[in-house]
Amino acid sequence: MSEILNNFLSCNKEYSSNFGTKKDLAIQPSKRVAILTCMDARLDPAKFVGLVEGDAHIIRNAGGRVSDDAVRSLLISFKLLNTNEWFVIHHTDCGMEKFSNDDIDAQFNLAESESINWLTFTDNEKSVLEDVQLLKDHPLVPSEIIIHGFIYNCSTGLLHKVC
Amino acid sequence: MSEILNNFLSCNKEYSSNFGTKKDLAIQPSKRVAILTCMDARLDPAKFVGLVEGDAHIIRNAGGRVSDDAVRSLLISFKLLNTNEWFVIHHTDCGMEKFSNDDIDAQFNLAESESINWLTFTDNEKSVLEDVQLLKDHPLVPSEIIIHGFIYNCSTGLLHKVC
Fold it and tell me: Which residues, given as ranges, of chain A have pLDDT below 70?
């Protein structure tokens, strides 16, 4: 067993031993919120906006981008599980801003014909605006869903509202 | 301003005021781990395996499925940011097991020609095995990456190892 796995299982046993009323939580997020943000290790959305288990859907990928899969998750979130307010949260010092699609293709030795859309971006505020707009324009997203766009600052922990 | 947003910003201010050494965290996850799990509101992977900010990439979508976008994120995770151990964690009582693709298409009034692959599943253990295998078989995922498969029990908080 890897050291990491051993440590995870030990922490998990401890977590389970104090599970309390979390066993009775409903599948629907109690705050009716979904957050889409980056996978970045420095970000803990539950901590930085004050959530506990049961409160909100959390969707994360490289960049916090509105990919097809993020849209799939958000559509399920509102239609089956009743969320009505969404937050798109990118962050400063993001890997998706440091590298270009060509850079990453090159790291994997991909030929031009094999190129992958890595969803990198060059302007953080613009990437948030574009992603929020993608959701607002999506034919299956109803207009009554409130959609916010933010940038999390990795140096201060503060959220900056973009839209 | 919505009540939710007001509350988030107030909690965020508090979080930022105790930010301490988190301002100096590196972009690379210190434990060299990436976790792929479900967006479900009841799951807090940082809490259930004992992580703090800076430790691990966390990727989340509806079901914790190995979608194209999850693969994109994991490839970036190891190639650009040096992770070498991945955890795929599905969970009991998952919405992706309660509904079929046809059910969800019907909720959105989609015609057969507009059908979306919602990545639902009918057998939880099998879905974990299949997702881990997808990663192991992926041409851009090197064999030296350790990949674990788990199911998180929403009634107990315990992780059950599948593979």
Answer: none
